User: What shape does this take?
Amino acid sequence: MADVLRVIITAKGNPDFRGNSWRYSIGTWGDYVRSLDSEWHVTEEDISAYISAMRVRGRVKKTIRDRVYYIRWALAKVG
Assistant: This one.
């Protein structure tokens, strides 16, 4: 992540580097970058996977319950 931030900061200040880094990013990450603007429908399976990941990381039940509550709340708000 630190490397990515360094590249973004450098690209912001250097127009020549910006063009090259953008072309490289599109070439390397092409399909992934283009998929970022697509919709993602969160399923119960996604939420279950999130809960499992939180358990693996050692989060307590209340933390998991609270986070899932707010995830569901936010999803209901955006439809």
User: Anything to note?
Assistant: The chain has a mean pLDDT of 81. Helices lie at 2-13, 15-35, 44-56, 61-78. The chain has four helices and no strands. The two ends are 31 Å apart (CA to CA).
